[in-house]
Amino acid sequence: MQFYVYSNTNPASKGLYPYLLDVQNSLLADLKTRLVIPLTAQANCRSGVISTLCPVFNINGEPFVALT
After folding, report:
1. What is the model's pTM?
2. Domain 4-66 maps to which CATH number in 3.40.190.10, 2.30.30.110, 3.10.350.10, 2.40.128.20?
Protein backbone atom coordinates (compact mmCIF):
# COMPACT_ATOMS: atom_id res chain seq x y z
CA MET A 1 0.00 0.00 0.00
CA GLN A 2 1.31 3.41 -0.93
CA PHE A 3 -0.55 5.63 1.56
CA TYR A 4 -2.12 5.22 4.98
CA VAL A 5 -5.05 7.13 6.48
CA TYR A 6 -5.15 7.68 10.24
CA SER A 7 -7.84 9.09 12.50
CA ASN A 8 -6.88 12.52 13.78
CA THR A 9 -6.56 12.34 17.57
CA ASN A 10 -5.94 16.06 18.11
CA PRO A 11 -9.07 17.48 19.83
CA ALA A 12 -8.37 20.97 18.45
CA SER A 13 -8.50 19.92 14.79
CA LYS A 14 -10.25 16.55 14.48
CA GLY A 15 -13.68 18.19 14.05
CA LEU A 16 -12.70 19.79 10.73
CA TYR A 17 -9.98 17.30 9.79
CA PRO A 18 -11.07 13.88 11.09
CA TYR A 19 -8.44 12.00 9.07
CA LEU A 20 -4.79 12.46 8.15
CA LEU A 21 -3.21 11.02 5.01
CA ASP A 22 0.37 9.85 5.61
CA VAL A 23 2.36 10.61 2.45
CA GLN A 24 5.91 10.18 3.75
CA ASN A 25 8.10 7.95 1.64
CA SER A 26 9.61 4.87 3.27
CA LEU A 27 13.09 6.25 2.46
CA LEU A 28 12.52 8.62 5.39
CA ALA A 29 11.19 5.94 7.74
CA ASP A 30 13.98 6.59 10.27
CA LEU A 31 12.63 10.06 11.03
CA LYS A 32 10.55 10.43 14.19
CA THR A 33 8.02 12.61 12.36
CA ARG A 34 5.59 12.02 9.52
CA LEU A 35 4.41 14.18 6.63
CA VAL A 36 0.61 14.16 6.55
CA ILE A 37 -2.13 15.89 4.57
CA PRO A 38 -5.37 16.70 6.40
CA LEU A 39 -8.61 15.27 4.99
CA THR A 40 -11.87 17.19 5.34
CA ALA A 41 -15.43 16.26 4.41
CA GLN A 42 -16.19 17.22 0.82
CA ALA A 43 -19.17 19.21 2.10
CA ASN A 44 -16.67 21.64 3.69
CA CYS A 45 -15.32 22.58 0.24
CA ARG A 46 -17.79 25.27 -0.78
CA SER A 47 -16.08 26.37 -3.98
CA GLY A 48 -15.56 22.89 -5.39
CA VAL A 49 -12.55 20.63 -5.58
CA ILE A 50 -9.62 20.65 -8.01
CA SER A 51 -9.41 16.86 -8.18
CA THR A 52 -5.92 16.72 -9.68
CA LEU A 53 -4.52 18.72 -6.75
CA CYS A 54 -6.94 17.68 -4.00
CA PRO A 55 -8.05 14.09 -4.59
CA VAL A 56 -11.26 12.80 -3.05
CA PHE A 57 -11.15 9.63 -0.95
CA ASN A 58 -14.13 7.51 0.05
CA ILE A 59 -13.85 6.60 3.75
CA ASN A 60 -16.69 4.59 5.28
CA GLY A 61 -19.00 5.69 2.47
CA GLU A 62 -18.25 9.42 2.90
CA PRO A 63 -16.20 11.59 0.49
CA PHE A 64 -13.16 13.34 2.02
CA VAL A 65 -10.86 15.80 0.24
CA ALA A 66 -7.08 15.87 0.67
CA LEU A 67 -6.15 19.50 1.34
CA THR A 68 -2.85 19.24 -0.46
Report:
1. 0.83
2. 2.30.30.110
